[in-house]
Design a protein that fits this description.
- The protein is α/β, with parallel strands linked by helices.
- The chain is 50% helix and 16% strand.
- Helix 2 packs across helix 11, helix 6 runs parallel beside helix 8 and helix 10 crosses helix 11.
- The N and C termini lie close together (9 Å).
Amino acid sequence: MSKLRLGVNIDHVATVRNARGADYPDPLRAAKIAVAAGADGITAHLREDRRHIRDSDMDALKKELNVPLNFEMAATDEMLEIALRILPHACCLVPEKREERTTEGGLDILANESTLSDYVAKLNKAGIRVSLFIEADEAQIEAAKRIGAPVVELHTGAYCHALEMDDAKKASADLQRIQDAASHGAKLELEMHAGHGITFKSVKPIAMIPEFAELNIGHFLISEAVFIGLDAAVRQMRGLMNEARAQRAKIA
């Protein structure tokens, strides 16, 4: 079982910055703090409406970071053009609607297989590692495999929310669904990632799933940083992930 990587999403540092139209806080500075605290990579979502991350942020992150940059993007021609110019280490294709507060649910690959296949092929050709953000659903995972994506990121939001609400029955069912999907994807030789809604409370059960190679965590870490600092928040999350993997290794 390999080390579980931590990708830190710095979108909401930019959300705070943009609320006042100022130049601070700087997402790049946050990214560097996260890396120094144990992040293995940085994730940033350049949305169509530029509500947080801006084009200039992506340029700065690509230029200055010495760890992999994961560019979250909608499957649009505009974002494809930017990705092919920046050439990040990875691109994660996500669903996007202007009216949503955050990414709600996963891509429906089955309904958009032809279109998504074209984007995946172009990103793959450019040497960019492509992941698809989807629900923990075997049919969607099989579709991701068919269209040539090497990586799948499972949406963990429903499980995390149920756990935070102390709905043990739903949390247990959602976690089982995630475990089953991760196992199915690994059998198809997909690299399995997970993300959305993960907190200190919910991270260990997810991190104990051996098929996961990477967790992407953002909003909670930036929120927690208000109280304990970003360095401490990332170090605590990294520590919990390591503890979970150590526990899982003993079980194995």
